[in-house]
Give the backbone structure.
Amino acid sequence: MLRSWIRSAVALLVAAMLAAACGSDDQPSAGSSASTEIKVFAAASLTAAFSELGPQFTAANGGTKVTFNFAGSQALATQIQQGAPADVFASADTTSMDKVKDLVGTPQVFASNQLQIVVEKGNPKGVKGLGDLASADLKVVLAAPEVPAGRYAQQALDQAGIIVKPVSQEDSVKAVVTKVSLGEADAGIVYTTDVTAGGDTVDGVDIPAVQNVTATYPIATVKAGSNQAKAQAFMDLVLSSQGQQVLESYGFLPPPTS
Amino acid sequence: MTGTARRRRRRAATARAGAPILLVVPAVLAVVFLAIPLLGLLGQTPWRNLAAELAAPKVQTALRLSLVCSLGAVAISILVGVPLAFLLARVEFPGRNLVRALTTLPMVLPPVVGGVALLLAFGRRGLAGQWLDRAFGITLPFTTAGAILAEAFVAMPFLVITTEAGLRAMDRRFEDAATTLGAGRWTTFRRVTLPLIAPSLGAGVALCWARALGEFGATITFAGNLPGTTQTMPLAVYLALENDLQAAIALSLVLLVVSLAVLIGLRDRWFPTA
Amino acid sequence: MSLEARVELTLGQLHLHVDLAVATGELVVLLGPNGAGKTTLLLALAGLATVEDGRVVLDGDVLEDTGAGVRVPTERRPIGFVFQDYLLFPHLSALENVAFGLRARGVPRAEARRRAGAWLERVGLAEHASSRPRALSGGQAQRVALARAMVADPRLLLLDEPLAALDVASRSEVRRDLRRHLASFDGTRLLVTHDPLEAMTLADRLVVLERGRVTQTGTAVEVSARPRSRYVAELVGVNLFRGLADGHTVQLAAGGTLVVADDCHGEVFAAVHPHAVALHRHPPEGTPRNVWAGTAENLEAAGDRVRVRVAGTVTIVAEVTPAAAAELRLADGGPVWAAVKATEVTVYPA
């Protein structure tokens, strides 16, 4: 009796281990214990820019380390809701920030971004605009509608009255770039900053301003964070002219004047 | 008294002697550790809305697709995996150990890595993929076939390993007896070998199916994520998690129930008694 | 119908080198100790063991000829094999087991089942037709195995220790049935056993196999009367000596001499039955020509007699009554004199 019960337990344990090995590969970062470290949850599109700001912050703040968690803003918001230890949250849209408005300080918009069509290097399929994406011969990849970039892209397409049937809805905007750069997809809609960050592997096709959608990026400190002072310092850095310059260098636009 | 009855009596008799407390306590902890997430899930389940959630078209699509893909993956695994298991168990060929290592590789590979590898092999620019594209116009990424392939890739090893073990454990003299009765090799395999390894084969198929059903990393990397085409249940759960927690929980519950059912049904096969 | 086989093979420590012929209607029993190679020989005849050098011809058809590179695969040999542990397919019923050989050879299902049913009746198991092998007793399983092997009318029936898996109680009854069924079989039959009683009661002709070689062949009577190896001598319960004869004296290979009544020359076997050995406390006077001193060791009860081994110039086993054994104080291991009349020694060429 006991033996078969123990067997069931071991079987479940093995199953759990297998499940863990095969499960989602997203791993929220461990909590920041020391006060000489802050955790910044930032939208995937901010990867390059914030990674550059990180060391600058550390240098100017007595060695306080910054660890980043880059992912789709919607995923980050959920993680914060579930209690993931974050000190700062920088989102690619106001919707995700709104989701956690009770958990963060007053958000401030620090940048904006525009959409661009990403294509393979050399634009072999000759994509010229949003209208081309509706072609049945093209493999178009978009971010999932739950992801800010996906929402923006759908908004732009709806506004332009273009119906696109994507072959896949990726879970982050970076994944869209990856699929295009690998040659698996012919085109996708991402942020201009992603195209810049994609470097030599991809090219961009502009979307005219009249069709384009502006993404607003708010940033806020997380109330449950263990180092409010440093968190605020990071936020200040992002909003400062130094931070704004870095963001600009990666293709971000200044916050829209409201 | 039959062999199984005798074994059961012996098992019960030893259990009556009791297990050392040093083993019981950690064992109980293990059970608690495993049970709590499950209980958490059950506790958060929106029982009242469950039927409605499960009936939602997006959920139904994901469920149906998961079934189609997982069963397709199992079919592929049986068709090529059983012959492979037979070869590994019965035929001494050069490089056998390498082949065996290869078949277990997907079991230890992180699924996303598997997905990347599949892309590099079967993607549009992939090793085999570009030939498939040029010669037959077949592309696998972003298709249901691609999802089936990704699931087969990670799940087939389970079937091969279990079946090979079954083939090694069976008394091969039954096959000798069959040949003396005039049965050729295929007849012997069909009428004697397969029925004798049926328990192992069944266990292998069940494990293979459960693994295929739960596959995420390789699928989303290789096949992509499109509702109705490649968005299987695990992918749907992942994306729903951020927006529609109720749907995510409902889907998780379905996956959980299926996995538990498979494991509980297999508990006697998992550790075959000699 | 006949079988001619010459088989040479090596399996581990066993070097099998056998020349065997089984004539029409002859039930040959292969007798030998464990490890002699009996089962291996059967497997080789069935094509289940690799023959290194040899030739197997059944009813004029060549089943195997290593020299000519001919090898008929097992499934095409017209044989029936009854395995020591029967190997009834556990997932099939008794009827399906028996029908297996027919269906494997292309007989339609209905007819196969009908013929199998008829055979089950013949062996008296008609009411167990739908039973699984694990529900059958040892004797019943043996009969199913026999029916299964015979249903397709094989031309060569090979039986590997058919009674070995049975408990002693069922053995004699099953042996009788087996004898009956084998008698009605008109193909060539070859049975293997290590049980001398089985061998003696079933065999038309005995072939003794020891360590991969045939040491003796003949009818049961011939073999028992003139054992040619220690193994057979022990089976029969006879003292066996080997030596060089010159007239009426035999110089024993193990030492000592025996005086014999028959005139013989050359390498010989000399057999003395234990009951022909007389034991005395003092050196006996009288006619026995073979007398020597020795010590009694190893007393054994044999029915209502006592067998005692007397070690001396010639070591011999004697059979006496328990009373005599007590009188002579054989149990104490004291000195004793053994005497054997020359007329009681059977001598035959080696």
User: Anything to note?
Assistant: Chain B touches chain C through 20 residues (CB under 8 Å). The longest helix of chain B spans residues 57-90. Residues 129 and 135 of chain B are 10 Å apart (CA to CA). The radius of gyration of chain B is 22 Å.
